[in-house]
Structures are given as C-alpha cells and as structure tokens.
Design brief:
The protein is an alpha+beta fold and 144 residues long. The protein has four helices and three strands; from the N terminus they run ααβββαα. It has one domain. The protein starts with a helix and ends in a 5-residue tail after the last helix.
C-alpha cells in the first residue's frame, strides 16, 4: 500500500511540474517572443482598424468593441484587458508598449467570443480559457 501511495505522489508531482512548465512556456516565452514579431499598433486609429479586422475573422462583427490604448493597468493585467459593458458592448484596453500588437487584440477578442469574461472559476479560467486564448492569439485559428 505504501508503494502505491508513493507512486501516486510521484505521479502527482510529475504532472504538476509538467503543468507548470507548459503554463510557463505558454504564457511567458512563446507570447513574448511572438509579440516581438507581431504587427505593432502605433495609433488609436490603427488599433480600431485591427480590432475590426480581427472581429470579422473571429465572426464577432456584431459585437461593439471600444478599444483604447492605456498607459498602465493594475499589475495583474500584463498586456491587455477586455470587459463586458452590458449586452454586446465591450471595452478592450491595451497597455502602451510591447503588448501593443495584433496578438494582444486577438487574445482579448477570443475572450469576448467565448464569453470567458463571465467565468468565475479561477481554475477553469487559468486551465482552459486563458490557454485557449493564447493559442488563438498565436495561430489566429479556432476549432469550434
């Protein structure tokens, strides 16, 4: 019985370490590196144009998204944030600087399409919604 518990404990540790490694790669190195090569957004007009292009690609042209470039946000938001303003109205804020790119717009619009904004479960958000939005932002492709 002790051997089985030890094996179970080791398996749990291995799974946890693998999840941390994958999560770190998914949210750290890959988006940062890809962001260096993504189309930069240099003006409010360009941001609005890219938001409209990406809304069309994602099939959410009917949603009203008000984008804005901001100087900073609370520390827990690194690149951007989208927020429901009621009905089909949303705000999308991007932090001025390295996160001002097409990938960040895709990421936030993905959350709008799939209503990830309403998910209250941190586990579901960080293990399902956020990884899916990162993958979409990198590939621009959705498998419904």
């Amino acid at each position: 019985m002790k051997e089985e518990l030890r094996a179970l404990k080791n398996s749990c540790i291995n799974i946890g370490l693998n999840l941390v490694a994958i999560y770190s790669l998914l949210f750290g190195a890959v988006p940062f590196t890809a962001g260096l090569f993504s189309e930069k957004i240099r003006s409010q007009t360009q941001l609005e144009q890219i938001v409209n292009e990406e809304k069309d690609k994602l099939g959410i042209a009917n949603k009203v998204v008000t984008p804005k470039i901001v100087e900073r946000m609370p520390s827990w938001y690194s690149a951007g944030r989208c927020k429901s303003e009621g009905g089909d109205n949303y705000s999308l804020n991007l932090v001025k600087g390295i996160s001002n790119n097409r990938l960040a717009v895709r990421h936030e619009l993905y959350h709008i399409k799939y209503h990830n904004l309403k998910d209250k479960s941190w586990a579901k958000y960080f293990l399902c919604c956020e990884p899916a939005a990162v993958i979409y932002s990198l590939t621009g492709s959705v498998s419904d």
